[in-house]
Every structure is written in C-alpha cells, then in structure tokens.
Amino acid sequence: MYDFFSLRSFFGASSNSSALLATELVSNAVRHTKGPAALRVRWAAGVLRVGAWDADPGPPEPPGKLDALADAEEGRGLALVRACADLWGWQPLARGGNRGKYVWCDLAAA
C-alpha cells in the first residue's frame, strides 16, 4: 500500500500522511466490525480521497481529542484522521442488498 501512496508526494502532499490515514481507516474497519472491508482511493481536482468500506451500517465512534489520547493504546484512529486530514466524514451505504458504511478523508495537494 505504501508504494501507491508514495505517488502522493508527486502531487505535492505527504505520502506519510496518506499512508497513515489509509492504514487507520482500514484497521478501524477490520477491527471494529465483522465481515469484509475494502479500501478506496480517488484522486480528483487536486484532492486525494482515502476511504474504507465495511459491512457494519452503524456510525463510527466519534473521535476524541488527540491530546487527551496521547498515552492511550487504542481509540486514536479517527482522532488522527481528524487531525491530519483536510476533511473527513462517513456515510451509510446500501447497494445491491448489501449494507455498510464508508468512512473517508480528504487530503488536498499542498
């Protein structure tokens, strides 16, 4: 996955940030839900959108304040996403009888 995100630096933003955020989103999808998960990456109009789909239609836990989670061993994923991304969100999905959610973040070119 990192090789793909190293291309991000070509467009003027941190490949480390995009790889970190993709890892956090996918690990949340795998760790906190049952069933399949998938990564989706899109580059359009100078913005990289990184998102993870999972089979659980319930909303993700709201992120806590990152500074309050500095010593925590878990629960920092979406706080990191909120701190590093230009924009983030989630939406419930239903397609072809399958339900789930899509949690995403945007990184604009520097």
How would you summarize this macromolecular structure in one to three sentences?
It contains 3 helices and 4 strands. The chain is of the alpha+beta class. The longest helix is centred in the first third of the chain and has 18 residues.
Report on the structure:
There is one protein chain. By secondary structure, the protein is α+β, with helices and mostly antiparallel strands. It is built from three helices and four strands; from the N terminus they run ααββαββ. The protein has a four-stranded antiparallel beta sheet with strand order 1-2-4-3. α2 packs antiparallel against α3. The mean pLDDT is about 80.
Largest sheet: 4 strands, antiparallel
- Supply the helix-strand structural class: alpha+beta
Number of helices: 3
User: Order of strands across the biggest sheet?
Assistant: 1-2-4-3
User: Strand fraction band?
Assistant: 25-35%
List the main descriptive attributes of the protein structure presented here.
4 strands, 110 residues, four-stranded antiparallel sheet, single chain, alpha+beta, 28% helix
Indicate the topology.
Elements: H1 2-6, H2 15-32, E1 37-44, E2 47-54, H3 77-84, E3 87-95, E4 98-108
Antiparallel strand pairs: 1-2, 2-4, 3-4
Helix pairs in contact: 2-3
